[in-house]
Specification:
415 residues, alpha+beta, BirA Bifunctional Protein, domain 2, five-stranded mixed sheet, binds histidyl-adenosine monophosphate
């Protein structure tokens, strides 16, 4: 029987999981600093949740969703992202109300599923951390979201990244621009790639971020959304920029940044890293002022972002090179004779009660083999219990770094 993990998924083995914990700890630390609370939602949801929010014409919904019907015949989807799920939960549990007009939520290492072509930094099961800030309409919320993302990258020591920013305008301004864009694309239809020809009708905004050189040539002269922003849109976007500038967060404006999900309005942003190669987006996000209402909640503005944990780790590994787990074991307790085994068991427990990490040999191996194991586990000290020690009611403690040895009475550990 040769069963393997599904294509596009990865086992996170002990040699890797400590790195995941590092990222998760950084997210928790930054969330505490910003005053965000964690939310966890189910891995599957009713499929219509994502169809309605992300948009039927997007790649995520039309090509990449894992859909299934349960035994009751209802259609579900493994979640492809968390924003829609968090909004669903916030509406269902009335997290936004007159008394609590703002909810600062974050998620950490949450699995998502998209049926994509796997490559470095692109998987079918991938994990995200991110925030959803529900309630505030002002530019401070957009800037806070970006500062949160940057705060995590800084906390992790990631520095080589670029922040790109754009405004997708409010609903009315975007509708006017969309018509102009479609008219322009129709004029140049035959010069566009096949994919963009289809998108001209189904999802014209996505033509703007096509990587195909034929599309790029046409897009250069397309009507720019920036020119159609309303006065309020423009002021909002300028204020976001000045808040970022004042906090020393560097960014560039990218008028072609449109994002792949339909729910955005006004500010959108992406953070990219050159360390990543083709899939260079570390995180992405933006404002989605209409989504909560669209999903049956009260009209509530919101903004958020999500970052891919796998991609953050690829970027970190690039920086750290041969990155090793330095978290060593405090103590390895060696029973040098069979009589010492129960004492070793008790001593390891006593050390743990003193907040030390301690292990013992569980395979009744020789003294030499136990020493080898202590070395392999990078124990800071070995605690040796031989005949001599047992007779004296003591233990020999050897510091592995210096080779220094001392005897200690066992009595002291039993208290
Ligand atoms: P997204 O751009 O689809 O946005 O994904 C955000 C991040 O998740 C990407 O920048 C990337 O790091 C990671 N990611 C996406 N797909 C994959 C994949 N197949 N393999 C590995 N990593 C991947 C969203 O998901 C929005 N919900 C973000 C958001 C939150 N907007 C507002 N609030």
């Amino acid at each position: 029987m040769n069963i393997q993990a599904p294509r596009g998924t990865k086992d996170i083995l002990p040699s890797e999981s400590w790195k995941w914990q590092l990222v998760e700890d950084a997210v928790r630390t930054v969330a505490r600093k910003f005053g965000y609370d964690e939310i966890r939602t189910p891995i599957f949801e009713q499929a219509k949740l994502f169809k309605r929010s992300i948009g039927e014409a997007t790649d995520v919904v039309s090509k990449e969703m894992y859909l299934f019907s349960d035994k009751g015949g209802e259609e579900f989807a493994l979640r492809p992202e968390l924003t829609a799920a968090v909004v669903r939960a916030a509406v269902e549990h009335s997290l936004i109300s007159g008394q609590a007009p703002c909810a600062r939520l974050y998620y950490n290492s949450s699995p998502n599923f998209r049926y994509e072509k796997p490559q470095l930094g692109r998987q079918r099961q991938f994990h995200q951390f991110g925030t959803e800030l529900l309630g505030p309409a002002g530019p401070e919320a957009d800037a806070e979201t970006i500062a949160f993302a940057i705060g995590i990258f800084n906390e992790l020591g990631l520095s080589a990244f670029n922040v790109r920013l754009n405004s997708l305008a409010s609903r009315e301004a975007r509708a006017i621009w969309r018509e102009k864009l479609v008219a322009y694309l129709r004029e140049h239809l035959s010069a566009l790639s096949e994919e963009s020809q289809k998108r001209t009708e189904s999802n014209p905004i996505r033509v703007l971020d096509s990587k195909d050189p034929r599309d790029k040539a046409i897009v250069t002269n397309a009507p720019l959304l920036a020119e159609y922003l309303s006065q309020e849109d423009r002021e909002h976007f300028e204020q976001v920029q000045s808040l970022l500038n004042a906090s020393g967060i560097r960014f560039t404006i990218d008028p072609y940044l449109v994002r792949g999900l339909d729910y955005y309005s006004r500010t959108v942003f992406e953070v990219t890293s050159e360390a990543l190669g083709a899939q260079d987006s570390l995180c992405g996000g933006g404002r989605y002022d209409y989504l909560i209402e669209q999903l049956g909640g009260p009209a509530t503005p919101a903004v958020g972002f999500a970052a891919g944990v796998e991609r953050v780790l690829i970027a970190l590994e690039k920086i750290h090179g041969d990155w090793d787990n330095s978290a060593a074991l405090d103590a390895f307790v060696i029973a040098a004779t069979p009589d010492a085994r129960p004492v070793a068991f008790r001593l390891a427990n006593a050390l743990r009660a003193q907040q030390q990490s301690a292990t013992i040999d569980l395979q009744q191996r020789s003294f030499k083999a136990q020493m080898r194991e202590a070395n392999r586990l990078k124990a800071n000290a070995v605690y040796i219990l031989g005949e001599d020690e047992l007779r004296a009611g003591e233990v020999t403690v050897k510091e592995m770094a210096t080779g220094e040895q001392r005897r200690m009475p066992l009595e002291g550990f039993w208290r």
